[in-house]
Specification:
This protein has 17 helices and 24 strands. With 592 residues, the protein is an alpha/beta fold. Among the domains are: 109 residues, Roll (Urease, subunit C, domain 1), CATH 2.30.40.10; 155 residues, Roll (Diaminopimelate Epimerase, Chain A, domain 1). The chain is globular. The chain starts with a strand and ends with a strand. Bound molecules: zinc ion. The site of zinc ion has 4 residues, from loops.
Length: 592
């Protein structure tokens, strides 16, 4: 006999405009049977009453439309970011806030590796760093060459290659040992291999490698690291824990090779009933070994392997780099203060064409490949950070749609950080969705204001209000592990638009709390074409809930990020995030 479970709650925020609030929800076969009051539950016949959420607020399970499973898989490497960061076990790694502290931390890790018996030339790889937070000189190989060197000793004795993966996933900084091992010299003519522009070392590589072509010179020596490293069992488990801790029931993995090895890892975990999150991987349709026609054929052939917890079929393309890494493609007037223009604080260098950013995919190639995936009936998500990249994507997609019209394609621009009102109007006309990177307002908002793009454009960064006003379907995201996975924090960013220095960036672009909550549920579900199944609490949809201990609509908007999460429900299965939950359960939750 089919069992029905009824959950009463303090408040249920449904995201269904026909019935925005309720006190009870009935679940049968992993789906939502009824939403309303106690009487409406009883009309469906006998049920089991489960009161464990009686003091909680239920929302639709949060949908992270742009993150990477590596959020759970980075923790086998030391974290070296500016901000404190919590790992999947709840341990907080303190931020590293001076270049001296960076060198000290690396020296300690170098010594740990040596005393653990690791060979002297085994690479030390850390992640989460960003030189833009450090005032003064931008970190380069010479700073790293001091690692492991007692004060006063000459350089040149270190043997250990050091590789620092930047938080944005687009850049590496390496020491001189690594440069030599990778064969990178003054003669290396690869775009993104940065060189000293002045001084005695002018023309020599400075240790910074921007974007895949340059990073590949190192990665081919040390193996894939950072976002491109393959997932393992521990990483998948950790990702599930982090998702549950933050109320996420559906999450993308927005760059995945989807080879048999990657699929085996995904299927192994997603096929287990106690895996707490639905994964939507997107095929890496750039820098692959195969052409677009082959890629489209692969993705189409994989859709038949989709299950409830593993959804295949998305395609990810990539146009430019990262704004804080100065590799995003910007329209006139380009970057505000470029680090290679003579050091921090130097005058604007926007006249120099070499400082306009990097095309990860050449625009003509993008248009051709996009058309192939589009004609194959697939949905394409395109990374565009700078406004030139967004405009180039919109121009290309406009031409493709003119040649091959297709209703309800829901192609989505990912990040779209500098999109302005005029571009949003064009996106609306083309049926393009936007998934904006609201977390940037906090994590890099001050740097965008003061260094990368300047105040004018920083105030319209991640312009959520303009997107909605133009009629563009909107989601907001973390791009974890670039910034931590936590949709309520992302919503807080979109509502408050606050930076660490206390600045409010473009108050006119703020969302209301209900709009932000919609963006992390139904809005994100829409961009994944999953809105018929998830994103709101209504009859027939999956029983996916974010179980909250505080009411996000009752707290002041400034406290939205502090809403406590009890856990989640995924297709009717209950997952408890922490030990603080009530013990009134009639059936045990899966402990994570
Ligand atoms: Zn990403």
């Amino acid at each position: 006999m089919t069992r029905t479970t009824v959950y009463p709650a303090r408040r249920i925020l449904t995201m269904n405009p026909a019935q925005p609030e309720a006190t009870h929800v009935a679940v049968r076969d992993g789906r939502i049977l009824a939403v309303g009051d106690a009487a409406r539950m009883a009309a469906w016949g006998p049920f089991t009453l489960d009161e464990r959420f009686a003091d909680c607020v239920l929302m639709p399970g949060f949908v992270e439309g742009h993150c990477h499973l590596k959020e759970g898989g980075m923790w086998d490497r030391p974290y070296l970011g500016w901000f404190d960061r919590q790992d999947p076990d709840g341990r907080v790694w303190p931020g590293t806030r001076t270049l001296d502290a960076v060198v000290q931390r690396l020296s300690a890790l170098d010594a740990e590796m040596s005393s653990a018996g690791q060979p002297a030339d085994a690479p030390l790889i850390v992640w989460g760093f960003d030189p833009i937070y450090f005032s003064g000189e931008r970190m380069n190989a010479l700073h790293l060459d001091a690692v492991g060197r007692p004060p006063g000793n000459p350089p040149g004795q270190a043997r250990r290659p050091i590789v620092i993966a930047h938080a944005n996933g687009h850049l590496l900084t390496v020491n001189s040992v690594m440069l030599r091992a990778a064969g990178i010299t003054a003669e290396t003519e690869v775009e993104g291999v940065m060189k000293f522009e002045a001084g005695p070392l002018a023309g020599q590589p400075n240790g910074e490698l921007q974007e895949p072509a340059a990073m590949y010179l190192v990665l081919r020596q040390i193996g894939p690291a950072g976002l491109l490293a393959p997932m393992n069992d521990v990483g998948m488990h950790n990702f599930g824990r982090i998702a549950c801790l933050h109320g996420v029931t559906t999450a993308t993995d927005l760059v995945n090779r989807l080879g048999e090895a990657e699929l085996a890892v995904l299927e192994k975990h997603c096929n287990q009933a106690d895996y707490p999150v639905r994964i939507v991987p997107a095929f890496q349709a750039f820098h692959g070994s195969q052409g677009a026609a082959q890629g489209a054929e692969l993705v189409r052939s994989l859709t038949g392997r989709s299950t409830d917890r593993l959804r295949l079929g998305l395609v990810k393309m990539m146009l430019d780099g990262s704004i804080q890494g100065f590799s995003g493609r910007l329209r006139w007037p380009g970057y505000f203060k470029h680090p290679n223009a003579g050091g921090a604080g130097a005058a604007s260098d926007n006249q120099n064409a070499t400082h306009k950013g990097i095309w990860v995919t050449a625009p003509a190639q993008f248009e051709a490949d996009f058309e192939t995936y589009h004609r194959a009936g697939l949905q394409v998500h395109t990374h565009t950070n700078g406004d030139e990249a967004s405009e180039v994507a919109i121009n290309a997609i406009e031409r493709v749609l003119a040649r091959a019209p297709r209703p309800d394609h829901r192609h989505t621009l990912q990040h779209g950080q500098m999109i302005d009102t005029a571009l949003f109007r064009r996106m609306a006309a083309l049926g393009l969705c936007a998934n904006l990177f609201s977390n940037h307002l906090w994590y890099w908002g001050d740097q965008h204001h003061d260094i990368t793009i300047g105040p004018d454009r920083a105030h319209r960064l991640n312009a959520c209000r303009s997107a909605l006003d133009a009629g563009v379907a909107l989601a907001i995201h973390s791009d974890a592990p670039v910034t931590p996975l936590a949709p309520l924090f992302t919503a807080w960013c979109a509502v408050n638009r606050l930076t660490p220095s206390g600045r409010v960036l473009g108050a006119a672009e703020a969302l209301t709390v209900p709009e932000a909550l919609r963006a992390i549920t139904l809005g994100a579900a829409w961009t994944l074409k999953l809105d018929a199944e998830i994103g709101s609490i209504e009859c027939g949809k999956r029983a996916d809930f974010a179980v909250l201990r505080d009411d996000p609509l009752a707290l002041p908007p400034a406290q939205l990020k502090d809403v406590r999460v009890w856990g989640t429900v995924l297709s009717g299965r209950v997952f408890e995030a922490g030990p603080s939950a009530s013990a009134s359960a009639s059936a045990p939750a899966v402990a994570l």
